[in-house]
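Figure caption, in words: inputs first, then the predicted bound structure.
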Amino acid sequence: MAGLEIREVSVRYGASTGSTRVTAVDGVSLTVAPGEVVALLGPSGCGKSSLLRAVAGLEPLAGGRVLYDGEDLAGLPVHKRRFGLMFQDGQLFPHRDVRRNVAYGLETQDLSRAERDERVTELLGLVGLAGYEQRAVPTLSGGEQQRVALARALAPRPRLLLLDEPLSALDRQLRERLAGEVRAALVETGTTAVFVTHDHAEASVVADRVGVMDRGRLLQVAAPDELRTAP
Ligand code: ADP
Ligand code: ADP
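Bound structure (adenosine-5'-diphosphate present):
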């Protein structure tokens, strides 16, 4: 099957330390079709981030499998998965200007400088920051920084983009506007994505389908207007 397949995945913590074991993700199955955006929604501590990190290869699987385009990713390290990552704190390089932040993921690709600049300009346009190439990161607002982080994550054309609460540090009004912009950028680039959030409105704006999690389990997956109850 094309796209992402999460099959009966479990994630546990504390196995090696002998401390109390926490089952953060408990047998979750979910598929994400090519070009689809799926949100993982649920309260803090329900395992959203752990599941995302397991898909990224940042957390070992205690059970289950993760496949992409039919290939089992077991043993494939993070950088070989060709996934993009974006977190709440965009973790931009503060001493690099916007152009060099966005170009970061292109450095390992075989592109001429002109091609790279062109791609950066195109991406900045896509996230509403046309003309920002030479701005210094510390002069940007929080929302602008997350737009740059999105452009940087999209630059290498990842086959899957994993976003972990990318808007949570922003105030509510900005968050709702940016959620719409993130969706537009994902749709425009045809990017397959999983978007973790605890915000119901944000999930509804961003995603084609929403997976609702609680205590490590996936309770339902539905289109935003078909969710059974607002969690
Ligand atoms: P969410 O992203 O929904 O807030 P998390 O995946 O961060 O949930 O956490 C799920 C559960 O796993 C919580 O009980 C959390 O305390 C626990 N957890 C997360 N990361 C770790 C870790 N590195 N070590 C131990 N427990 C963890
Ligand atoms: P999120 O809300 O996105 O899940 P958190 O603030 O819960 O982020 O977690 C931030 C980091 O701390 C993550 O790397 C997570 O794995 C780790 N973490 C979360 N809960 C625990 C915990 N109970 N014990 C140890 N590490 C944890």
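The mean pLDDT is 94.
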